[in-house]
């Protein structure tokens, strides 16, 4: 047999403590350290959240005061807002880009990219990801996707404007005479999505392989923190669902650039019959929603995991129903692949097939309700500390209940057909997967900021951020449920007498949106100020929240490799709170005499 | 010869942990690629089922030849890996290059298949049923091209090792190359197998 000898590259993980020579470029830009890559995802996600939020303010101005002019808009947006009024085409570009940015760049890359990178190696006791190189590439593919989408704002015909769902036939033809945004801007949208999917897949492969293979001694699957389970399941969802979006985009670009007819049939433009023949736009919808609905769980799973962690730590109580929490995530993962057509009840679907999708959709309420019940019972009679991360975690539970309940309505085809494409739907999904996911993300940022930067965020500003966000968030999206008969995507509601009743509500929601945005400015100031000037963490207070998980056993500024010396060994599950006569029992603390593992 | 098959070392060895993880990443990546072709062929079935403007036609014979070439390419790669593990590096490089060249022939045969479709009145922009063949073959071809580029890169690295007096020049196996070959072998058989799936799918769907 030929001998295979150990080689440095393959032992990458084992040699981190040797402190490789690294330059500024390889430390901060092209870093392969999972912690730095996490920060890159976070800062890029925050940048995009700011842009996405700003775009929503622009179109909320239009919705509240469709006849008013705002000179500042012309200063900011130029010809897209001539005379201080948004053009109708740019209005649609704004909502398209708002959806794309928030769904993919912020709540997918910004959320799971940040916390999967940061927490997986630290909480399972690994030196780094299975492939640090691929991990770095996953960020840079995301960055490239960001650059392409950002540049599309500056081309003559403007960014994509056919909706974040990119439905054909509107987006199936490269005809700027019909729709400026269907030109180069949409090609850039597809290019950006393709890069994004490649990056997301590279990251997800790494997350799953790392969790399964790189756990430290003693870290069995049933000793893993719930956030790790959630992040692993998120990755599995991405690996299996994103290829459908890639296929959908590929076929769409073939139609647009090469003239095929996958999605197009008998299109008439200005009286002229186009050459496209035999395609079906419904195929795109099937492919899109095969990703689109699991995408909801790709967004919410990391938030669920973070919240499970934060509630337990700050209530100093074990998570209630640990295994039920894991099984619920697994059930949502599996059932989540059989519900996509509930987005398509109005496409002329057979009622029999519709019923199948109704049943699967309503089934998801069961594991979701189990999770909510377990979160509430986790904090029930706990020793609650209302720190900023805890406030956001509780806020998440509130929002998830509020937004989740209306999901039951919309999962039922007979009701959904009446409510389809109305503001009820906008209110539902913004609360349950928009604001709730943001609350999970913020809970995570406030919780792990000290571990990321070695400093604390200011708690007072954190509370201002929380109250502004929760009150403002509900004020923006709760009234939308009363607009169940009002169609979404209209540029100017004052053109329709029947919608005049809602003029004041639109003004109210727009003012609330400004309140929410102001709260985010407070967060931004707190985040960046604290990064450099916040109260410092010290070596004698390495575990400020009193958590059991392994990340708090590292030094204030852990190097690439995370632990100096040997990796910690795990002896107990992560939720040994208020047991054994002690408030916390870290996972690496050996079991006492006569003590049994959970 | 005993092959240098990589197995999990229970002694918490980072070397074998990383190898196992890399293999798993590849396999999960293959699952992702499989999903791409599964959903696209499903889309084809849905389109066919709606019965609107769907052409049935005999699949050009050249695609059967493509399948034979894909099998040959996989065989060549299998032997190239065996040769490496037997430390026959010169023969390894020759057969490795041969497997890549066979794959280039495969790509050419696909191009000829497109020409045959055109001759049958089914250009890319023609009937949707034909367009699906172009789309699936082209996206599959992209995966082949990626494999060919990696194979040539590996060939170049092995050739350079001879000049640098590295592992192979001393008659030893390069452990990195062993892992890379193992991974690439899996990928190579996978993408060739993927074509066989597509070919059979087309064969039965278009009859």
Keywords:
heterodimer; A: 598 residues; mainly alpha; Cytochrome C Oxidase, Chain A; two-stranded antiparallel sheet; 2 strands; B: 207 residues; Four Helix Bundle (Hemerythrin (Met), subunit A); 77% helix; disordered N terminus
Question: What this model shows, in words?
Answer:
The complex is a heterodimer of chains A (598) and B (207). With 598 residues, chain A is mainly α. Chain A contains 16 helices and two strands. A two-stranded antiparallel sheet of chain A has the order 1-2. In chain A, strand 1 and strand 2 form a beta hairpin. In chain A, helix 11 packs antiparallel against helix 12. Chain A is globular. Chain B has 207 residues and is an all-alpha fold. Chain B is built from five helices and no strands. In chain B, helix 1 packs parallel to helix 5 and helix 3 packs antiparallel against helix 4 (128-164). The longest helix of chain B has 37 residues, at 14-50. The radius of gyration of chain B is 20 Å and the shape is elongated. Chain B starts with 13 loop residues before the first helix and ends with a helix.
Percent of residues of chain B in helical segments? over 70%
Class based on secondary structure composition and strand pairing of chain A: mainly alpha
- Name the biggest interface: A-B, 55 and 50 residues
State the helicity of chain A in percent bands. Answer: 55-70%
Strand content of chain A: under 5%
Q: What's the overall average pLDDT of chain A, rounded?
A: 94
Order of helices and strands of chain B: HHHHH
Element order of chain A: H for helix, E for strand: HHHHHHHEEHHHHHHHHH
Q: Which consecutive residue ranges of chain A, at least 5 long each, have pLDDT under 50?
A: 1-19
Name of the CATH first level of chain B: Mainly Alpha
Q: State the helix count of chain A.
A: 16
End-to-end separation of chain B in angstroms reads 47 Å
Overall spatial form of chain B: elongated
* Assembly state of the chains shown: heterodimer
Radius of gyration of chain B: 20 Å
The largest sheet of chain A has its strands arranged as 1-2
- Largest beta sheet of chain A, briefly? 2 strands, antiparallel
CATH topology term of chain B: Four Helix Bundle (Hemerythrin (Met), subunit A)
Number of domains of chain B: 1
Number of strands of chain A: 2
CATH structural fold name of chain A = Cytochrome C Oxidase, Chain A
């Amino acid at each position: 047999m030929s001998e295979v000898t150990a080689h440095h590259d393959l032992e990458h993980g084992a040699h981190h403590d040797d402190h490789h020579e690294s330059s500024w470029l390889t430390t901060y830009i092209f870093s392969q350290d999972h912690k730095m890559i996490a920060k890159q995802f976070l800062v890029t996600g925050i940048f995009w959240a700011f842009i996405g939020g700003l775009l929503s303010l622009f179109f909320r101005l239009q919705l509240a005061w469709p006849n008013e002019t705002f000179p500042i808009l012309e200063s900011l947006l130029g010809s897209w807002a001539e005379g201080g009024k948004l053009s109708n085409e740019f209005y649609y570009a704004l909502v398209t880009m708002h959806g794309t940015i928030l769904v993919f760049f912020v709540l997918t890359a910004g959320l799971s990219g940040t916390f999967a990178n940061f927490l997986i190696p630290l909480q399972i006791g690994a030196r780094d990801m299975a492939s640090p190189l691929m991990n770095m590439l996953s960020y840079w593919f995301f960055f490239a996707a960001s650059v392409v989408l950002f540049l599309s704002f500056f081309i003559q015909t403007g960014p994509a404007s056919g909706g974040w769902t990119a439905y054909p036939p509107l987006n199936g033809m490269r005809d700027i005479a019909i729709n400026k945004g269907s030109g180069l801007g949409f090609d850039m949208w597809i290019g950006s999505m393709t890069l994004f999917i490649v990056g997301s897949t590279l990251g997800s492969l790494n997350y799953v392989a790392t969790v399964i293979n790189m756990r430290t001694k003693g870290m069995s699957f049933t000793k893993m923190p719930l956030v790790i389970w959630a992040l692993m399941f998120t990755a599995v969802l991405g690996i299996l669902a994103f290829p459908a979006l890639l296929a959908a985009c590929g076929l769409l670009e073939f139609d647009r650039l090469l003239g095929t007819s996958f999605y197009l049939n008998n299109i008439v433009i200005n009286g002229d019959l186009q050459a496209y023949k035999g395609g079906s736009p419904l195929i795109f919808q099937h492919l899109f929603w095969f990703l689109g609905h699991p995408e909801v769980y790709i967004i919410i799973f990391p938030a669920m995991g973070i919240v499970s962690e934060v509630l337990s730590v700050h209530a100093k109580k074990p998570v209630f129903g640990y295994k039920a929490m894991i099984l619920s995530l697994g059930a949502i993962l599996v059932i989540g692949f059989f519900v996509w057509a509930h987005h398509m009840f109005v496409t002329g679907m057979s009622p029999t097939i519709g019923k199948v999708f109704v049943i699967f959709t309503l089934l998801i309420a069961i594991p979701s309700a189990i999770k909510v019940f377990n979160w509430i019972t986790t904090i029930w009679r706990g020793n609650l500390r209302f720190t900023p991360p805890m406030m956001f975690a509780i806020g998440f539970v509130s929002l998830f209940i509020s937004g989740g309940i209306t999901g039951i309505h919309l999962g039922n085809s007979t009701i959904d057909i009446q409510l389809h494409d109305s503001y009820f739907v906008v209110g539902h999904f913004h609360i349950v997967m928009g604001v709730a996911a943001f609350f999970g993300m913020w809970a995570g940022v406030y919780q792990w900021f000290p571990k990321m930067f070695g400093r604390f965020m200011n708690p007072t500003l954190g509370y201002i951020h929380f109250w502004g966000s929760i009150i403002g968030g509900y004020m923006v999206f709760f009234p939308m449920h009363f607009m169940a008969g009002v169609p979404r995507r209209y540029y100017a509601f004052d053109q329709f007498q029947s919608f005049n009743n809602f003029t004041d509500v639109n003004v109210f929601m727009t003012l609330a949106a400004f309140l929410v945005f102001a709260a985010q400015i407070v967060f931004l100031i707190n985040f960046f100020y604290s990064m450099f000037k916040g109260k410092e963490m010290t070596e004698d207070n390495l575990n400020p929240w009193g958590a059991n998980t392994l990340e708090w056993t590292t030094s204030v500024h852990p190097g690439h490799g995370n632990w100096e010396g040997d990796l910690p060994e795990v002896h107990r599950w992560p939720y040994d709170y208020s047991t054994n006569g002690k408030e916390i029992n870290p996972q690496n603390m050996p079991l006492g005499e006569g003590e049994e593992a959970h | 010869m005993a092959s240098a098959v990589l197995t999990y070392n229970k002694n918490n060895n980072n070397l074998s942990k990383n190898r196992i993880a890399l293999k798993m990443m590849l396999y999960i990546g293959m699952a992702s690629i499989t999903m791409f072709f599964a959903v696209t062929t499903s889309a084809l079935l849905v389109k066919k089922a709606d019965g609107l403007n769907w052409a049935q036609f005999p699949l050009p014979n050249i695609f059967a030849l493509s399948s034979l070439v894909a099998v040959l390419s996989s065989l060549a790669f299998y032997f190239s890996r065996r040769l490496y593990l037997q430390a026959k590096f010169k023969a390894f490089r020759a057969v490795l290059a041969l497997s890549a060249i066979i794959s280039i022939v495969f790509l050419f045969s696909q191009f000829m298949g497109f020409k045959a479709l055109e001759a049958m009145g089914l250009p890319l922009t023609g009937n949707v049923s034909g367009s699906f063949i172009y789309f699936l073959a082209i996206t599959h071809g992209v995966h082949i091209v990626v494999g060919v580029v990696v194979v040539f890169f590996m060939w170049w690295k092995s050739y350079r090792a001879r000049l640098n007096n590295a592992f192979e020049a001393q008659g030893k196996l390069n452990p990195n190359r062993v892992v890379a070959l193992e991974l690439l072998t899996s990928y190579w058989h996978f993408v060739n197998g993927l074509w066989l799936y597509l070919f059979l799918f087309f064969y039965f769907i278009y009859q």
